[in-house]
Design goal:
101 residues, mainly alpha, 3 helices, 36% helix
């Protein structure tokens, strides 16, 4: 019969397009950029919000504010922008809490 060598029903068949490792097009960010950016924006949660918003903008076609290597990922570009002072955080001024007399 033609199906003598067929695997049992439900057997796992690895396929070339399925891999547990990251695909070769995935870019991982450089940890030294994160460390340098944390010197400019010390709150890690705030830094993540700044970088993620900028990565979205870069994905939508915005141009980088810094010269970046050809193969740099958007997260690396955003971190470099923070390091070079092109991106940052400013707090709005708080109104003074003086009582009117």
């Amino acid at each position: 019969m033609a199906f003598d060598n067929a695997p049992a029903v439900g057997a796992y068949l690895p396929t070339p397009e399925f891999s547990l490792s990251a695909p070769p097009t995935t870019h991982t960010m450089n940890s030294h950029l994160l460390e340098e950016a944390l010197k400019h924006v010390p709150n890690q949660q705030v830094l993540v919000n700044i970088v993620s918003k900028r990565v979205r903008q870069l994905n939508q076609g915005s141009r980088p504010l810094v010269d970046a290597p050809m193969r740099a990922g958007f997260a690396d570009i955003a971190f470099q922008e923070v390091i070079e002072g092109k991106l940052g955080l400013t707090y709005p001024e708080q109104p003074s809490m003086t009582a009117a007399v």
